[in-house]
Amino acid sequence: MAWSDMELQVFLLILFLCLTSKRCEGKVNHKPSCGYPPSQWCRTLEIALECGVQKQCLELRATRPNVTVPPVELTLYYESLCPGCRDFITQQLYPTWTLLRDILRVNLVPYGNAKEMQNAVICQHGEPECHVNLVEACILHTTSHEAFHVINCMESASDVLTAAQSCLQLFAPSVRWENISSCVRGPLGRSLIHENAAKTRALNPAHTHVPWVTFNGMYTDELEDQAMSSLFHLVCSLYKGGKPPACTGALRKLDRSFC
């Protein structure tokens, strides 16, 4: 299976840390034989040990900023099959979050321009979108930290729904697809969509289109224009704490030794 851009990015960063550290014993294993994609090698100590990258993960964490102020909170109100929403997620939001996840908290609300009727939900792009909105709401509820990886994987695919199960298996292997299906078919899924509908209706000002983005609970046309053109720089400017190296362009010098 081919690696995603993010998997390759995390692997190369870990490889770089290995090569530039004081000691990197033995040959570099270019793809550790563990059951997790590279994007999750440093998620927990247990995974790092299983994948043989504990030392590199510790050095990677040392490059992160000492967060002493709240992160920028971005909430995206979107529709799963809206082309503009898919582009924003895959081309702006996910790459920005990948680089700035220590200072950016992302909340996803799949519902958008749908209309909640007495016994049904009517979606702008038809019943398939209603179903995918429901699937993504269940994934967000069930998979916690891995949810954004799964949803970006889905939204990057040519067929969002068909990709759902394989994306879940890749980025959240501990979650069974049957759990998502049960949520989609049962009262929990309906409750999650109703909750998203209520959140969307409560927007002030009311949303007029999607994607609709708020920062720390606030929406302005100016913020939206900046988010759509250069989200990365906007998040860096909104964060009130010490800027991480990604924002300043500063390089962290690692100790090196030669033989």
Short description:
The chain is mainly alpha-helical and 259 residues long. It has helices spanning 5-20, 45-51, 54-62, 83-100, 127-143, 147-156, 160-171, 177-185, 187-201, 221-238, 245-248, and strands at residues 72-78, 104-110, 115-116, 121-122, 212-215.
Features:
single chain, 259 residues, mainly alpha, Glutaredoxin, 2 domains, three-stranded mixed sheet, two-stranded antiparallel ribbon, 11 helices, disordered N terminus, oxidoreductase, immunity, secreted, disulfide bond, redox-active center
Secondary structure: elements and pairs:
Elements: H1 5-20, H2 45-51, H3 54-62, E1 72-78, H4 83-100, E2 104-110, E3 115-116, E4 121-122, H5 127-143, H6 147-156, H7 160-171, H8 177-185, H9 187-201, E5 212-215, H10 221-238, H11 245-248
Parallel strand pairs: 1-2
Antiparallel strand pairs: 1-5, 3-4
CATH superfamily name of the largest domain? Answer: Glutaredoxin
CATH class of the largest domain: Alpha Beta
Radius of gyration: 20 Å
Annotation field: number of helices: 11
Mean pLDDT: 86
* Cα-to-Cα separation, first versus last residue: 37 Å
Unreliable stretches? 1-6, 19-32
* Multimerization state: single chain
Order of helices and strands: HHHEHEEEHHHHHEHH
- Spatially, the strands of the biggest sheet line up as 2-1-5
**Main beta sheet strand tally, sense and closure:** 3 strands, mixed
Please provide the count of β strands.
5
Organism: Clupea harengus
Main location: secreted
EC number: 1.8.-.-
Family: Belongs to the GILT family.
